[in-house]
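Exam revision sheet. Question 4 asks you to relate a sequence to its structure. Input first:
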Amino acid sequence: MPEFYSPARRPHDEEQRQHAVDATGIVSRRGDPALPRVVAEAAQQLSAPIAAVSILDRDRQWFAARIGLESEETPRAVSFCAHAVLSRHQPLVVFDAARDSRFAGNPLVVGPPGIRFYVGMPLVSRDGYALGALCVIDLSPRTEACNLHALRALAHEAERIIEG
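Answer key, structure tokens:
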């Protein structure tokens, strides 16, 4: 079993990115009642048991809405979404996390929930800062790309909800 994984580096504009997260007020609002519908639709569209709107905060990943996950947050160091936000406009697709050197030893892969497949579409503010990601997770690896068009549309909807 791999012992190591690679936490995501901080974006070069981390201070401004965090300011953009704070400006939305999403963390203090403790989510939005419209976000669970977006998450449920993402899980259904990609036929997966887990989906979430993940907000990348200073030292944690906080789930503004989630399905299939018990925890409300994880440390930022183990966050797959912290990797996804680095691309800003492109999804991060991991077909088998147990075979990906960035994630193989990650506690979320080797322990509960046992992530194998992950796709995260960055959630970007109007000012161009990555706030987090709309992610879909499966406990089995996959060999093909999923419906990224639907995920992108749902991510845009989540962005509108988050920014009000």
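Marking note for examiners. The longest helix spans residues 148-163.
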